[in-house]
Every structure is written in structure tokens, then in C-alpha cells.
Amino acid sequence: MTRGDTPFSFPLLTERRCDTFHSETEEKTMSRPVDLVQGTLDLLLLKILALEPQHGWAISQRLKQVSGDVLQVSDGSLYPALHKLEQEGWIASEWRPSENNRRAKFYSLTRLGRRQLEKESAIWQRLSGAISLVVQLPEA
Amino acid sequence: MVTRVLAYLRGLAHRRRIAGEVDDELRFHIEQEVDAHVARGVPRGEARRLAMRDLGGLSHTRESVRDVRTIWLDLWWRDLRYAIRALRRTPAFTATALTVLTLSIGVSTAIFSVVDAVVLRALPFDESDRLVAVGERSISDSTPGARHMATPQNFFDWREQQDVFTGLAAVAYGGLTLRREGDELPVNLHAPMVTADFFSVLRVRPVLGRAFTAEDEAAGPAGVAVISYGVWQRRFGGSTDVIGTLLPVQRGSFEIVGVMPPGFSFGADEPADVWVPYIAGDDERVRGNTIGRNLHVVGRLREGVAVEQAQAGMDQITAGLAAETPAWFTDRVAHVEPLQQSLTRGVRTWMFMLLAAVSLVLLIACVNLANLMLVRGATRVRELGVRAALGASGWQLSRVLLLESLVLSVTGAALGAMVAWWGVEILTSAMPADTPRLSTIAIDFRVLAVTAVTGVVTGLAFGWAPVLRFSRPVVTGSLHQRAPTIGGRGAPPRLRGTLIVAEVALAVVLLVGSGLFLASFARVIEVDLGFDHRDVLTVRIRVLEIPDDRQRFSERNRGLLLNVLERVRSIPGVEVAALAGGALPLRGDLQTVNLAIPGRVLPRNTDIDFNVVSPDYFTAIRVPLLAGRFFTDADVRTSESVVILSEAAADRYFPGEDPVGKVIQVSGRRTVVGVAGNVRQDGPEGGWRTQAFVPFTQSAVSGATLLVRTAPAAGAGVLPAVRQAVWIEFPDTEIPIRVDEQALGEYLAALVAQRRFSMLLLALFGGLGLIIAAVGIYGVMSYRVTQRTQEIGVRMALGARPSSILSSVLRATVAHLAVGLTIGLSGAWVLAELVEGFLFEVRPHDPAILAGVVSILAVTGLAAAFLPARRAAGLDPLVALRTE
Prior knowledge:
The structure holds two protein chains of two kinds. The model of chain A is unreliable at 1-35 (pLDDT under 50). Chain A has helices at residues 23-27, 40-51, 56-66, 75-88, 111-135, and strands spanning 54-55, 91-97, 103-109. In chain A, strands 1-3-2 form a three-stranded antiparallel β-sheet. Chain A is mostly helical. Chain A is built from five helices and three strands, in the order ααβααββα. By secondary structure, chain B is an alpha+beta fold. Chain B contains 28 helices and 22 strands. In chain B, helix 5 (91-120) crosses helix 15 and helix 18 packs across helix 27. The longest helix of chain B is centred in the middle third of the chain and has 37 residues, at 394-430. Mean pLDDT of chain B is 84; it is low at 481-491. The chains are: A mainly alpha, B alpha+beta. At the A-B interface, helix 3, helix 4 and strand 3 of A face helix 1, helix 2, helix 4 and helix 15 of B.
């Protein structure tokens, strides 16, 4: 399960939790961002948190707003994803009062998370660039 | 990875809290969302429904989050249970592994707790790392074990001139006897004499009363005393009235001015009962004088001063003193070293040696377990292959294998801690009584932490072998594998062989060490001491002494002592009784005087041992007469002054001549009347000393030891009568009723105690190492036979004789043994030279020991391999062929 071991070759289809052997865990299907290319949600969340620490609701608003409502992330997928990032140690959380003075859980990027963000965005850039090239091939 | 594990552990620790937090977080989200909808004009009920819908159902989302959180835990937990189940399926393997681990970790823990308490742990003083010992060192003498002490005037000069310490204090060891009071018998007390600032240098404050002041140091003979917490509790019941009470001792009494906190004790020696001020005599205040007490000097380094700088400062002072008193300082330098190092001197190297030996045992155990795990892993290739085929990654397979090792080693460590608990009790009771800080040895949190770490490290150390080998099985190959096929699969024979070789090599090193120390001990106890220590009681008598009129009291004491001697002689069961003033063989005390021979030029400061004895001294301890005569009752104060020399002294100063009749100068001019046989004054490992003996009647008397030779084993019966005889004249003398505290033989036992202790432990470790290695060889060979069952069946079916099967199985072992023995011998060859200084009359490369070790290991190794080999030879070919 060490991420460093497996070359990060194809982020579009990364299935990180490759516990194929432990089949019983697979029965409990995890909520995944169905309308998003798998794996890219992490990248988006890391990027948003890189701007400033936020709580979950603000993140979901931000996601919709920045992407002009193109990227539909169900709120139900958001929280498992956040918790997974926290588990990985890429983001950290802290309880403090929100803007309207309610107790909210704020997430922020860790040093490790920043490194991960750089890595993932580089790969994303390369891949999306490559895909654009293919897509833009002039048809005969 | 580390961050992940930490985050995970955090999650584990707060699992329940996290569940609550997830609820809080989701509730917050919904509230925000509802507010947002309401702000846009949606009715509250509808807004709530929308928010819930977007979240995909509260409970579902909560579950999903929890899945993320717990998945790790589940995986580990399941693997752990799997590992435990797998271990329980193979009870023989598990029991063997656990026994090996429990013993090796238990023994290591016990030894570590001893080394930690005696050597490693910081001294119990404030900023103890700034405390140093200062002493004189002779340039020519570099005895590693010696603690460096100082003569009084040097200490005074140092204290006066130094600027590197915040304080410099001195201790001289001494004793007092508490006088008989009512029914209470006299009691000997350890009573170190200390300079006034001793307590302030160590930064220890009395719990009651005060410490010493500079005035106390200058006061007259009847002075003040500070008592230990123990004495305060035992003798004074912890009463606060104790301050001002008089402590009745033989030379007057001391007024108690303070009580020290519990547990306060300085130095390696037995805990002090009472401290009295050190008051230097006039004869001790002469620069360059050799007369005087040996002082232990302790200083506290000034802020920012390192030991090296302190040494440089002291060198400068010594150089100045040397210029003033050249003869005294020609080969003497001041020596500064950390106090801890100085106090643990003498045991430090022994302790580390024991630790090294026990580490070797642990290492053998690790190699052995690596080997067994490898064998075990090989029987599971197929299972691991299935797992891999189902998609388990290398890390997951490693985790399964590693967890097994860790379960074993952590269980072993827990059991080992129990063994250690029990082992420490045995160790402390067997250890030499003069071991520093003996009473502080215990299994504490610090030791248990080390044990826990040892457990995990051990597990990882022996767990790597199967991981390395099996975590990436070739899926197809291992699935096709049916039974172990001809030639064997699984662990590569090379790795397995290497581990056997390593085990044998380590065992050779350990056993050679054990052998060398066993042989040394055997030689030590065989040493001819020059006298017979058996059945001799020794009763030390402290006599009354009033410094004002030494002459008169010396006469009086001599008379009283001779009365005692007369009485003791008439006790039934006493064969010979004698008196010795001052030094006694084996007791570690020594008195020297300057020797001069008229008409001869001897080197400056030629010293000779000075003993004052009654005529029967030599017959009492059975020292032979080599020339001339012993003393008689005719040698009295008024007759000619006489002296007897030891053989070594006669040979040194009168080589090739007859010393009898010569005149020498030892405490006055005396005529040599006899030569006595040599005596090992310092014990079996000491050399012959040059000694002079003068009659008891012709010397000042300041205390004496009564020596009583009894009929064999009659000591206990005679002792009560001896006590009474002494008490008639000296009622305030403590005489323990236990014979073993009084026998000359006990001094010998104490002298060889450290050697005996180390020898016993090393022998134990050697045995343990041997057994573990044998278990390893047996395990691997049995496995190989099992693996080759089919092949052996084929061979036998084709007509191979059992004997050829037997030899083919044994041949592999012989090869491994030979390589292991060779490597081990070369290692032992080098390492033995390191311990040469600790050996006694045994050469580090003693051929008999090396040959013995080789044969023991060869026989053990072959025996361990023979059992499985015989099983192979006895196989029924039909059964063997069918085996899968």
C-alpha cells in the first residue's frame, strides 16, 4: 500500500485501494465521485485547500463555483474523499468557529499534501496535454 | 509512510470520537446547506430535504466515511488473527520459537537491567554529568582497573589553586564502632570522613539539621557527625530530637548535626551509615609525604568548563607543584575523569563484556529463528502463491509474513520480561557484594521499554528472511508446485546454508569466550596462595586510641591484646591463635614503609610491605619457614630489634646471599632473623610482594586482627567463646556471630566473586547458544528430509542402501558445519585477543579450548542432523513415493 512503490502511471483509472486479494472489503462499495474521472477529485480537493483552509461545505461550494457547475461532485462523495486525504496525511483538520460562528471542521493542506499536489498536477498537465493533442488531430 | 501510520494510529485511538466528529461535520454541512437554500427562498422543510438528497443520505455517507477510516485497521486486524491462527496450527514450531525467544530475550533483559543500573544510569546527583573524579596517576603505571586517589596535601594544594571547579571535596573511607549500650551489641558503622563542602559539591541537602561547615573541618577530635537516613530510622526511630544527640563511639562521641535524605550514598562502596569531618593530621600536611590517607577527590565543573579543560588546569597546577617538589612529582600527574566513569571503573568492562556475550546469544537466536521462519515459509509457498494470484501485493504478503514474526517476538519479549524478573533476583544474589549500585538493580520502566524494542527489532530481524524470499512468489511456478519436488524448492539452499553457517560461527565465538573464562576461573582457584586460608577465623579488634598519649595507650592495648590471645589459645577447638597488626592477606589492606639497607644505595622511595605479627602468625596461616627462625616469645621490646623477610624481599635485596644476620632499616634498624615463604597478599591474581614482618612486641599497636586456626570446620563452634574472650578486654568490639563473615576464606571468595560470576554467566550463555544453534540445525535438517522424502523414496526403490541415504543427508550438514567452524574460529581468534587482559594464565588461543569448542559443536551439529537423517534412512520407499 505504499504509494511510492507503484509508479503513478495512469491517474485516470487509479484504483488506489488495490485490495483485490481481500475480497470481502470490496462488497462494501465505497461512494465514489461517479461524475468525475476517478482520482481527479483528490487533485481538485488538494488544489482548493492549497488556496486556503476551508470546511467541507465551503469546499463543495467552491468546487461548484470554480468549475462553473461543470464538475458535479455529490456531497456524499466529498466527505469520504476528504477523510481519505486526511488518512493519507495530505490534509489536516481542526475544529474552529465558522464565519457564522458555528463549530466547523476546517481542512488545510500539509507539507506532504503540497508535495502530492505538485506531483499530481504535473501528471495531470502532461496527460491532459497529451489527450488534447490526440483529440485535436485533424481528420482527413 | 510514517505519517500515514501516525494518522492511522491517531484514528485508532480516537475511533469513537471520530464517529461523533463525522456526525458533527455532516450536521454542520446540512445546516449550512439549509441556510443557503432558505436564503434563496426555499421553505425550510424543502431545503432540508434537498440538502439530505445532495448528501446522498446521512447514514450512507456516514458509513462511507467510516469505511475510509477503518479499512486499514480491519486489514491489520485480520492479518494479525490470521498470523495467530497460523502459529497455533503448528504448535511444535511455535513452542520452539517461543522458547528460544523467551530465553534469549529474558536473559538479555536481565543482563541489561544489571548493566543499566550499575554502569549506564546517571548518578543520582543534581547535574551529575558535571561531577568529576580527580586523582593522582603514576605515569609509569597504567593499570586500567585502578581508581585514582590523592594524598591529602596534594588535595589541599589543588583545592587552593584550582579555578576550574565550583568546588573540590574529598572523602576518605573509615569506620567507627558504636559502643555497647544496654542490651545492644557494638555495631561497626561505615563512616567516611569528608571535607566540609562534600555535600554541597554533590548538591545534597540534609533532610534534618545541617551539613558540615568549614569550622567542623578544623575542630578537635571529638566532633560532629551527619547520619544516614537508614541509621536515623533504625537507631533513632526517625525522631526529630536526634539533632544534638551524641553518637557513642570508641574514641569519644560525635554530636549528630544532620540527617541525609534516604538513598543518598556516594561511590561504589557500601552505603555509608555516618559521615564525619575529615580532619587532616599534621603529618598529612607535608608536601611530598607518602604518609597519609588515600582520598577520593570529587569536583563539580564550573559552568562551560569541559573535562579536558579541567584536566589542562590541573596539569598546570601539578607542573607548578612539581617545580617546587621535584622528587615527589617526577612521575605523578593529576587525572580528571567523569565521576560516573571513575565509580564504575573495574566493573565497566566486565559488564560490557557480559552484555556483548548476551547479545551474541540474542543474535544466534535471531539467526536461528530466521532459519526456522524460512523453512516454515517454504512449506507455504503454495498458499502464498494463491494469495498473489488473487492480487495480493508484495507488501501485503510481507505483512502476513512479518506479522507472524512480530507476534512471536512480542510474545517472546513479554514472556522474556517475566523470565528476566526472576533472573534479576538470581543475578543480584549471585553478584559480587562490592558491585557498585547493586541495590538499585531492578526491572523498571526503562528496562521494559528496551525489552519491548528488543522484541520488535528481533521480530523484524528474523522476519526479513522469509519476506525477502517469499513476498514476490512466481505465481505460476508456485501454483504448479505440487509436492516439494526433487531438488527442493522454497528457500534457496544457499540462504539456508548461510544461516546455518552464521549460527555455527556465532556459537563458536560464544563458546570460545565461555571456554576461556571457565579455564581462567579454574586456574585462579588452583593458584597456590602460599598459605592455607581454610579454617581461619579473623576478628578485627579496634582498640582505644587517644592521640594525646599514643605511647601509653599503645602499651596498654598491647597488654590487653596479649591477654585476649592467651584466653583464645585455651579455647577447645582452637589450634593456633595469633595477632596481626594492620594488613592481612586477601583483605585488600596494605601498609608500606620505607626500606633502607645500610651501605647500599636503593632507588628513592623503595617501599616494603610492613606487617606487625605475633610469633604464631606464620604457623596460624601455615606459611613455611625458608631460612633462619620465626619470632619467639623471647623477642620482646627490650631485646634486639628483629625482622623477617618474605622470600621475594630476600631475593630482591639479597640475591645470592644469605639475608639472615643482615641489618636493614624498616621502622628502625633491625636484624633479619628469618625468611618466610611468599604469600599472595592481593589474592590469587596478585603477584608476590616484598614483605617485612616485625614482632608485635616491637612496634606501636593501633589495632589488630585476631587470627584463629580451628580444627577443620570447627569455626562455628569456637566463635562464641572467641567473642566472649575478646569482649572481656574490648567490650565495644563488634564481632558478627556468623562464621562466614569472619573467615579468611571469605575474603578469598570475595576476591574471586567477580570472576566466578562472569564465568557462570558466560558458561550459561555458551550453553544457551549451543542449544539454540542445535535446535536451528535440527529444524533445517528435518525440513530438508521432509522435502526430499519423494526423492529418497525413488532412490531407495532403485536400490540405494539406507547407509548411503544417511550419509547423503549428513554430508550437507558436515559442509555447513565445516564452513561455520572455520569462520567462527577466525572470528574467535581475533576477539579472544581483545579479552586477553581478563584472562588468567590462559592464552587467548589456547589450543585445547579451541579444539574442545570445535568438537563440542561438531558433535552437537552432527547429532542434530543425525536424527532427521536416520528418519530418512528408515523411510519405507512405498510410503515415501506416495508422499505429496
